[in-house]
Amino acid sequence: MEILFSLSGLAFGLLVIWCLACAFYDIKQRRLPNLLTLGMHIPALVILLLTGQGLLGASVSSSFAAWALALLLTLPAYVFNWLGAGDVKFLAALGLLTGLNFLLTSYVIAGLLAGLIVLVWLTLQRLMPYVNLQLSSFNFQFPAVPLLSGKVLPFGAILTAGALIALFLNPNEPLL
């Protein structure tokens, strides 16, 4: 697996650690702090300035296009209160670090994962009363599945999963 950055193993590892830190924080605190999201814009810009390419070898224009596309994709959802501001800044930083192809691949994978999670959630909401009815004869019941409303899913963690899946599948070749 070749990454086009001079310290490829370090770059790969730092990207994974940063993504996992964002996911962990989003799951535990239900927010993504500016230090992790906006704070990653500065190293991304430094990498672009010093190497003339993104962390995974994307061109400067691809990285800035990915940054702009990330904002275009997520700001409307933020305006409608479907995503938090941290999700917007996280995806923008990811785009600046990795480029357009990687961002699109990660975003599509994350969207599919979010859709799958919602489908499972809605299915459980419908089935759990029937399952609990059957289990009541054994004096056992599962807790009720909460109703979906507002910002329920930690989308930063889902974006991280999409990015890590895309990274491990093939970091330099677009999947789309």
Quick tags:
disordered N terminus, mainly alpha, 7 helices, 176 residues
Describe the structure.
The model is unreliable at 1-7 (pLDDT under 50). The chain is elongated, with a radius of gyration of 19 Å. It has one domain (8-169). The chain is built from 7 helices and no strands. Helix 6 packs across helix 7. The two termini are 19 Å apart. With 176 residues, the protein is mostly helical.
Main beta sheet strand tally, sense and closure: none
Number of helical elements: 7
What is the CA-based Rg, rounded? 19 Å
Structural class: mainly alpha
What is the rounded distance between the termini? 19 Å
Our count of domains comes out at: 1
The helical percent reads: 55-70%
Total strand segments: 0
Low-confidence stretches: 1-7
Topology pattern, helix = H, strand = E: HHHHHHH
Describe the global form. Answer: elongated
Task: Give the DSSP E fraction (strand runs of 2 or more residues).
Answer: under 5%
In short:
This protein has helices at 8-29, 34-37, 41-51, 60-79, 85-98, 100-135, 155-169. By secondary structure, the chain is mainly alpha-helical.
How is the topology of this model organized?
Elements: H1 8-29, H2 34-37, H3 41-51, H4 60-79, H5 85-98, H6 100-135, H7 155-169
Helix pairs in contact: 1-7, 3-5, 4-5, 4-6, 5-6, 5-7, 6-7
